[in-house]
Amino acid sequence: MLHRILPPSSLRCRALATLALVSLTAPASSALGQSDDSPGVVRHPDFAELSARWASALTGMSVPGMAVVIVEGDRILHLETFGVRDVERDAPVTPETLFYIASATKPFVALACRQLVDEGRLDLDDPVVRYLPRLEFADPDVASTITVRDLLCHRPGISSFPVVFLDAYTGQITEDRYYHFLAESSPSGVVTYSNVHLTLAGRVLEAIEGVSWKDVLARRVFEPANMTRTTGYADAMYADADVAFPTQWRNGGFEYASVRKTDSTMHAAGGLGTTALDLANWLRLHLNRGKVGGTRVLSAEGMGEMLTRQSSMAARRNDGVDGFALGWMMGSSYGMTKFQHGGGYVGSAAMISFIPEIGVGVGVLSNAGGGGSALVDLVTSDVYRFLTAEIGDDPLPSMIRRAQQRGATASDSAPPEGNPALVDGALSLPASAYCGDYGNEFWGTVRVSLVDDHLVAAIGNVGWALHTQGVDGFHAYNADSFSGDGTFFVTERGVSAFEVEIADNRVRFEAASASESRAR
After folding, report:
1. What is the CATH number of the domain that holds 452?
2. H or E stretch at 380
3. Rounded Cα distance, 99 and 220, in Å
4. 39 and 94 belong to one structural domain
5. Alpha carbon of 472 to those of 198, 292, 437, 491: distances in Å?
6. CA distance 195 to 345
7. pLDDT tens track for 87-134
8. Are 379 and 319 in a shared domain?
């Protein structure tokens, strides 16, 4: 009951005073109000002032839409939606709106692994190579020492930018490419958060179950937990009538993000879409030792292990996270142990957390990047500060200032100086001669096309506008994702290849053999 977990009324007043509403100013075009009530909305009166604060923060931080759910024990304490899920149609967020949750996927994969332990089909202390014999690293002796448990608590320190880029952004990952890049990597042996740990865990699930990790979660977790709209299939999610489209604030208004998830980029470290109502059941599952209502999804023993510290690291300054349970980040907050996992991607942000000691969990979903990530953290912090009467500095005013400064400068969304690569002499050949496919055995295929008299390129789901930087040189620009300088190579036979910077990698893509005679 709320009166059990809330502090005495005098302390609640102090907490609300600390979290006093801030006067916010934002462009009129970003003034998205609270959505109308719809089935599933549950407003607890004690959160009324915080709700008003969040609606104002949504506007001030340039976030189009958000959903918030607060669970106590086995019941929804508060569920509220704000703003719009689709900035072009002005469609409001509802409790059933699907949001992409990015890395908050990881605990779902961990829970499915722990279910297999209950069935005697997996031992978390088995070496990963028992299930994934292709796994190798630069040091051939390392792979056999890494266990499934290590993966679920980020103990090995496995990192590979190419794997993440292909897996999460371009969608051009293959098993050969995945294991090729891991074979070039050297795990640090230091607890380090990494997508690779959970994409390996997802492959362990697939090796045992014989189907995609997405279908494993659907059968093992979503169905028994009554999470009826949660999915690992982005193509279905974005075809849904009630979905939040990833959004960026740019040029004084909201725009769809230029990079959006597809089935090819939904991976086990960041590949789920869910709703506020479904998140309520996910939180209830953890607060009730593996049960949702009367349905047991995981044994009490299994949930106990899920929420036991497995690894430790230095506490992070921003949120106090100092280690990992199975799939969950954990740390000390408000004098208690808090479990959490956030998720962020282009135009999307989520935060899911719970404190077992007070039996409360919070889920926050938004369809914005930068400002959205800050807002989901703010809302989460607000709830726990309110419930515990924690007194401290209010972070919202500085957040608003930073958001407005970003909007005023818009430096992150302005294209680089220079002209597009036109047919008028910016290139040594007519622009059409550069069009076609360019491949790299391990990085994938880039397609160069002519659009409105200038060159563009796409590597899977990541598109680039190509801007002139000297003859046959270019800057590959994407406002929401990876950008870098590059060069076309021209021979007597035509355009033979180009190189482009992708993060710290200079990658060469060769022209397809059938199109090497493109010069006119």
Report:
1. 2.40.128.600
2. helix 370-388
3. 21
4. yes
5. 41, 60, 17, 12
6. 13
7. 999 999 999 999 999 999 999 999 999 999 999 999 999 999 999 999
8. yes
Residue 17 in domain: yes
Q: Are residues 342 and 289 in the same domain?
A: yes
264 in any annotated domain: no
The secondary structure of 187-198 as a DSSP string is --SS----HHHH
Domain assignment of residue 401, given as a range: 2-105+240-259+271-409
Tell me if 14 is assigned to some domain. yes
What is the Cα–Cα distance from 387 to 390, expressed in whole angstroms? Answer: 8
40: helix, strand or coil: coil
Beta-carbon-side half-sphere exposure of residue 504 (alpha carbons within 13 Å): 2
Q: What is the pLDDT of residues 384-431, one digit of tens each?
A: 999 987 766 777 777 777 666 555 444 344 455 555 665 557 789 998
Dihedral, CA of residue 490, residue 475, residue 234 and residue 75, to nearest 10: 160
Last residue of a domain, one of 409, 444, 469: 409
Ranges of H-type helices in 332-419: 370-388, 396-409
Give the residue from 377, 409, 441 where a domain finishes: 409
Strands 494-502 and 505-511: antiparallel
CATH number at residue 337: 3.40.710.10
Residues 357 and 436 in one domain: no
Q: What is the DSSP letter of 427?
A: S
Number of domains the chain contains: 2
pLDDT at 513: 59
Residues of the chain with pLDDT under 50: 1-35, 408-414, 514-520
Say which residue the tokens 């040029």 belong to. Answer: 251
pLDDT for 2 equals 45
Strands (E), 118-239: none
Amino acid making up residue 228: T
